[in-house]
Each structure stands twice: as structure tokens, then as C-alpha cells.
Specification:
With 671 residues, the protein is of the alpha/beta class. The protein has 3 domains: 2-206, Serine Threonine Protein Phosphatase 5, Tetratricopeptide repeat, CATH 1.25.40; 239-402 and 596-609, Rossmann fold (3-Layer(aba) Sandwich), CATH 3.40.50; 424-588, Rossmann fold (3-Layer(aba) Sandwich). The chain is built from 27 helices and 13 strands. α3 (36-49) runs antiparallel to α4 (56-69), α13 crosses α26 (621-628) and α26 (621-628) crosses α27.
């Protein structure tokens, strides 16, 4: 039947009675019948018959769409190029040709096509605004990792054209953080600052401000808007109704959900803890949603599990039903709000208990994450109101791998372009963690310690030059910022001892980077605030036996760094202390962590069995968010606020006078 349609069309084309309407209708019929090859052939015949047609550009464009749809990129490219040759201002062809070029690896040429589309649409009208946004999106997406200023410019234009572009605002803020552009929240024309704050990614919010109630409300808004509460809820049967839930006759089943159980920061941290799980008590199943991996970390984790389930080929509901069918008792979300997460799986409640741990530095603020694993420094007593989950604590929240691979080749300072006899401060955190506040503190330290240098990671040439220019504006010679090239983990670890002291960032401090530094014997000075992300490094330093390097005021942070800069013998004592205590401190006692983690799991299960599963309290978080975004949190000196909770309570009180707020169990109680 389909072949007859094709032959009839060819006959009509030969007789000159086959117009463009007939062509498009027949092509659609052939494609729907599963014969895209015949549809493509019909396009070729029509174009050969009417090479001078005034609608050649439209026919060629449609031919390109068809060919690209079934993977024939060469034909699609030729078709789009023909469409552009016939009508140079035909913007959709430029946009689609750019996509084909990108898929063929010609990113620079793809960018050229999208820029041509943008230039063509310079006088924006109602009809063209959608096309311009489409071209800018492509440009912004591709240029994020290379050519960040151009990407930022593209995203800014989208926001100016369409103020409701939430995901664009998210990427716009993230790019400004990566480039250390301060103020970070610089609203494009026509966009309200509050809109940008609400659109922030939770990781960006953690780097933006030391404001845990803003983070709580923002994370609630992020997951509510992106995941929502419409997913099917599986709700496994309670133990008394399901004999399979009787753990007296079997091991407790723990599921780990993650995209990062490979050569990723989370994989590097958790691998040994997984190897140390007591398989007589626990059955461990991994649900992996990351990229294909065969690295050393991935191989070790696979070998340590009872079962490894790759869920990349499953949609969220299928994966959730798999977890439910496997009878998982406790599902541990190791992603949280990070790249590659599958949070919607958790939203379906495939296991009775869901835990937030390790991958994301903060609360998930969802109705379905019941517990958060921390320690008594990261979430101390009284800070529980900053999270929605029930807080359970380890001696130190972060696991560590004592089998780290370190290159036997140890470089010299000369190899790393570092001065031989000067104080070398380092910070190997990503640039999005470098806030204006911490950069100003660093410059104060460098001014007070002559000839000292600050060793940072090489991000890209533009950002390096920008940071060097900022240093110069503070009276610090550009050459006193030394940018180290990116290296494999073993080589990177091997160069750590070249530094004297690691200077942590604020408000989003070092996590894996900090434990790497401490493992390699480099003391770290950190500034702990109120938020989870600002306190992790303090926990690690304390657990490594260096509590006196954990500061709570900017003045103490600077004074301590300057003191060590003038007293190398003190630095040496700290380095010796780290090396001698490495095998006995809590930070690297992975056996202790594994035992305590198993006790936490057992306690969670006992709570569930007796009907005491925690219920996350999300009351009034919409109001908390409204109150939080009223302030310029980037400029606010929250470290200078003596009582952050009381400061926020006063904001709620002001709102209550204008519009009554119902009581909640967190911070607000009026009656």
C-alpha cells in the first residue's frame, strides 16, 4: 500500500501534476507508514524536477528535518544548506543546520549558524521572538563550557525577550558564578531580581549566600516546580501486611540511587565505605543512572555490591517499580539536586524509607525524603529547623577512601611554576565557589604576607585574566595568582604537598577537595557559617584533629592565615600532625563510619516498624521564600548577624503584620 502511494506520486511528478501540497501530504503519509526512505527519495525527485521553484527553501528545509530525524546527517546538512542558499534570511534553516553541525563535531561552525540567525532577527518582532530565543538557547547551551561570556550574553538576551524563562535564568546565574561576576544577581532589563533568585539552581543558591532558610525554601520550590506531586505513589505495603518485609528472616535491603558511582567526587568518597558494608546484616543494591563507566572506582563499587542495576534504559516509573519489586527497605539518594539526578523516582516512594546523603550539601525539602545524614558540626543542635528531613548523625558526615591512588611522581615547585621560598596558599575549589567576600579576604591576606602566592585551578583563559585583573584592583600583582592545570586525580593529589596552606571558600566550602588536601598533609583554614555547605569543611578539619583552623568570623580567618604565613614552623607542625594522625583520626576512620552508618539504617528501620517514620514539614515554605528573596542576600553580612534565626523571625513578623501567617513548627509561632 505504501509503495503504491510512492509510485503514484512519482507518476504524478513526471506528468507535472504534483504540487507542493501534494508533496508534503504524501511525504507525511510515507513517513507515517514507516517508509522514511521513500519519503526522502520523493523529496530528491521533486527538487530535481523543480530546482528553480520559489518554495525550494521550504521543501529543502522539510527534507532536512526528515533526514535528521532518521540520522542521515549528511543529507540533512545538504538540504539545510540548499534552503539557506535559496533564502539566506530563512532563520529556521540556520538554527537546524547549526544543530546538525554540532552533531557532526563542527561546534565552531554551528555557533556561526546560530549567530547568523540571531543577527538576522536583530529587529525583533512578535513573530520572530520565538525563533530568536531558540537560536540564543542553542548558542548559550553550547558556549557554556567554552566562551562563557558569549553564553552569558545569549542567556541575558533571552531573559530580556522572555522574562518567564526559568531554566534560562538558572543557567544565567550559574554562568555568572563560574566567571566570578559580582554581583552575581545582575538582573537583565525588565527582569526582577526576585525572579532570578527564585529560578536559581539549589547548588548556585548554596554558593550565592549563607542563608539556610533561603536554601530550604528555594529547594522546596525547585523540587515542587520541577518534580511536583503528580507522580504515581507506589507506597510499599507496611511490614505487618507484607511477609517479605520481615527482616528477622533476611538482611535489611539498602538501595543506593546515584549517577556518580564512578570516577566522580561522590564515587571517590564512598567507595571504601561500600566495600566495608557488613553483608551478613545488609543486602546492598545499586541503582545506577550515570554514564557508562569502567574506571577503577566504578569497578570497585560494582564488586562490593550484592546487585548492580543499570536503570539508564528505564523511565522514572519503570525504575521506581523495579526498586519496589526488589523489596528495598531504605533507598539512599546520593544525588539530591545535582547533575544526573533522578529525583522523580524518589517522588514515587518506591521504598518505605528514603534518605538524603552525601551528593547534595543541604536539605531536599520534599515530602518524600525522610532523613538527612549529617554530623554535629554540619547540622548542630538547634539547626534542625533549616532542613525538612529528620537529622541523623555520623561521627563525621563524609566517608573517605584510604586507598586513594596517588602518583609516585612528585613534582617540584618549579614544575608547578611556584616560588621556592615563598608562602604558597592554595584553593582547588571550582570558581563558582569563589565569592566576592572570600576573594576580598584572600587579597587582604596576600597584602599582609609579602611575596606569598595564591595557587588556583586553571578554569579558562578569560576567567584567569579576569581574576588577575580583580587582584590588581586590590593592589596585588597579577603574577601572585598562579593557575595550575587540570590533572588526573593521582597526579593532582601528588602535587598537593607543594602548598603550605589551603584557604577554603565561603559560603560554599570544600568537600572532597578538603579531604584530599588533609589526606595529603595540607592544613586547611575554613570559615563556617550557618548553612550546610559552609560547614562541611569545618567538620572535616575538626575530624582530622585541627579544630583550631575552623573560624567563625572573617577577621579570625584572615588573622589565622596571616599568622601562618609569617610562621612556617607552625605550618610544619600542622602538616606533621596531619601525617601522624591520618590513620587514627575520625575523618579517615572508614571502618567506624561504616559501622555507624549501619546502625543508623537499623534505627531508621526500627522507627518505621514502630510507626515513627518522620514526616517532612513543609508548612509556610512559600512564605519563607517570599520573605527570603526580598533581601539582597549577596550583599548582606549574614556572618555579622548575631542570631540568624531571630533575624529571619523578625522578617516574618513584619509580613505577619501585613498579612497573618499561620503557625508552623519551624520558626514562626504567633499564637
Amino acid at each position: 500500500m505504501v509503495l503504491e502511494v510512492f509510485l503514484s506520486a512519482v507518476k504524478a511528478l513526471a506528468e507535472g501534476t504534483f504540487g507542493t501540497g501534494d508533496l508534503f501530504g504524501t511525504v507525511e503519509q510515507l513517513a507515517a507508514g514507516g517508509r522514511a526512505d521513500l519519503a526522502g527519495q520523493l523529496y530528491k525527485l521533486w527538487i530535481g524536477a523543480y530546482p528553480e521553484s520559489p518554495v525550494l527553501y521550504a521543501v529543502s528545509f522539510n527534507q532536512g528535518v526528515l533526514a535528521a530525524g532518521y540520522g542521515d546527517l549528511a543529507t540533512a546538512r545538504l538540504a539545510y544548506e540548499r534552503a539557506i542558499a535559496a533564502k539566506p534570511d530563512f532563520v529556521p534553516a540556520h538554527i537546524n543546520l547549526g544543530s546538525v553541525l554540532e552533531r557532526q563535531g563542527e561546534v565552531e561552525n554551528a555557533v556561526g549558524q546560530w549567530q547568523a540567525a540571531i543577527d538576522t532577527l536583530a529587529p525583533v518582532t512578535g513573530a520572530s521572538v520565538g525563533l530568536k530565543i531558540m537560536a540564543l538557547r542553542q548558542l548559550g547551551r553550547v558556549m557554556k563550557g567554552n566562551g562563557r561570556p558569549a553564553a552569558e550574553s545569549a542567556l541575558r538576551q533571552i531573559l530580556e525577550l522572555d522574562h518567564a524563562e526559568g531554566d534560562v535564568a538558572e543557567h544565567f546565574i550559574a554562568l555568572r558564578l563560574l566567571q566570578c561576576k559580582w554581583p552575581v544577581v545582575e538582573a537583565p532589563e525588565g527582569v526582577r531580581r526576585e525572579t532570578l533568585l527564585r529560578s536559581m539552581h539549589p547548588l548556585s543558591a548554596a554558593a550565592y549566600a549563607d542563608a539556610p532558610l533561603f536554601h530550604l525554601a528555594q529547594n522546596w520550590n525547585y523540587n515542587r516546580s520541577r518534580i511536583g506531586y503528580k507522580a504515581p505513589v507506589l507506597d510499599p505495603a507496611p511490614p505487618e501486611e507484607d511477609p517479605e518485609r520481615d527482616t528477622k528472616s533476611r538482611r535489611l535491603r539498602i538501595g543506593y540511587l546515584s549517577s556518580d558511582l564512578c570516577a566522580h567526587a561522590v564515587g571517590y568518597l564512598i567507595v571504601e565505605a561500600m566495600e566495608l558494608h557488613n553483608h551478613d546484616k545488609l543486602e546492598m543494591v545499586v541503582y545506577y543512572c550515570g554514564p557508562p563507566a569502567t574506571d577503577w572506582i566504578n569497578a570497585r563499587i560494582k564488586a562490593s555490591t550484592d546487585r548492580w542495576v543499570d536503570i539508564n534504559g528505564m523511565d522514572d516509573e519503570a525504575a521506581a517499580r523495579q526498586i519496589q519489586a526488589d523489596g528495598i527497605d531504605i533507598l539512599v539518594d546520593l544525588n539530591g539536586n545535582t547533575k544526573g539526578s533522578r529525583t522523580k523516582i524518589c517522588a514515587m516512594r518506591p521504598a518505605p524509607i528514603i534518605v538524603n546523603w552525601l551528593g547534595f550539601p543541604g536539605t531536599m525539602a520534599t515530602p518524600y525524603h525522610h532523613y538527612i545524614i549529617a554530623d554535629d558540626w554540619i547540622i548542630p543542635e538547634g539547626h534542625e529547623i533549616f532542613v525538612s528531613e529528620k537529622v541523623v548523625r555520623l561521627p563525621c558526615y563524609q566517608p573517605n577512601d584510604r586507598k586513594r591512588q596517588v602518583s609516585p611522581v612528585r613534582p617540584s615547585r618549579q614544575d608547578a611554576r611556584l616560588p621556592e621560598d615563598a608562602m604558597v596558599y592554595c584553593c582547588f575549589n571550582w570558581t563558582q565557589k569563589i565569592s566576592r567576600k572570600i576573594f576580598e579576604l584572600w587579597m587582604s591576606i596576600l597584602r599582609q604576607v609579602p611575596n606569598s602566592v595564591l595557587w588556583l585551578l586553571d578554569t579558562d583563559e578569560e576567567t584567569n585574566l579576569y581574576l588577575a585583573g580583580l587582584a590588581a584592583s586590590h593592589g596585588i600583582a597579577a603574577e601572585r595568582l598562579v593557575f595550575g592545570e587540570w590533572m588526573s586525580s593521582p597526579n593532582h593529589l601528588a602535587r598537593y604537598p607543594l602548598a603550605d596552606v589551603f584557604l577554603d571558600t565561603y559560603p560554599y566550602g570544600a568537600h572532597t577537595t578538603a579531604s584530599d588536601a588533609l589526606w595529603m598533609g595540607v592544613p586547611i583554614i575554613t570559615l563556617s557559617g550557618n548553612s550546610f555547605a559552609s560547614r562541611v569543611c569545618g567538620s572535616l578539619a575538626r575530624s582530622a584533629g585541627l579544630p583550631d583552623l575552623v573560624c567563625t568570623t572573617p577577621e579570625d580567618y584572615v588573622a589565622l592565615a596571616v599568622d601562618l604565613g609569617h610562621n612556617p614552623e607552625k605550618v610544619l607542625r600542622y602538616k606533621t600532625q596531619l601525617e601522624e594522625g591520618r590513620n587514627s583520626c575520625a575523618l579517615f576512620d572508614t571502618d567506624l563510619l561504616a559501622r555507624r552508618l549501619e546502625k543508623l539504617y537499623a534505627k531508621m528501620w526500627a522507627d518505621y516498624r514502630r510507626g515513627a517514620l518522620p514526616r517532612p514539614d513543609l508548612t509556610n515554605l512559600d512564605i519563607y521564600l517570599e520573605a527570603a528573596v526580598e533581601d539582597d542576600l549577596e550583599a548582606a553580612d549574614l556572618l555579622g548577624v548575631a542570631d540568624y534565626k531571630e533575624w529571619f523571625r523578625q522578617k516574618l513578623a513584619q509580613r505577619h503584620r501585613a498579612c497573618p501567617i499561620p503557625d508552623d513548627k519551624r520558626l514562626w509561632k504567633h499564637s
